[in-house]
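Fold Annotation — chain and its backbone

Encoding — discrete vocabulary of local shapes
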Amino acid sequence: MLWMNPTLNNLCPSGSMKKFITVTAIIIIVGLWAYYLYQNIFALTSKSEIAEITKNLPSPTTIIIPTDKPTPTPAFSDLDLIKLAFAEKHGKPVSEVILTISENNGLTAQGSISFVGENGGAWWLAAKVKNVWIAVQDGNGYVACESVTDYKFPKSMVPECVDVNGKLKIL
């Protein structure tokens, strides 16, 4: 470069700078070429092809997976709910009802009942209808057939009853 003007000579890069510029240019060209190939040749599906494939897929459905969550226990026991039924029947506060259960099959129950401040006690029968305990009958005499037939008490709870004519019926 001796033949060049000294000002032009300063503008020409040195040997190591020429190598750097050449390598950088090659890297840029290879990068652009790779990008072109990826976009136009190596891409397996275009956006329009993806849209075409997915338009025939069914819409997503919600799947409910049951969990093994424990069923919450009721806030009141059968004893508490039967006490409440008899307290309402007799117009007494629940705190004055003394009740014991001798048999309970979940739908019908029997036991003994008394009230605070009263002497003696009585038997009782209760039935569960639509998850509510009903005071069916209580007392010291016979069981009236018309009060128990709708509730299907087992023979262990009601082996016999008296019909409206006063006749004893064996169930």
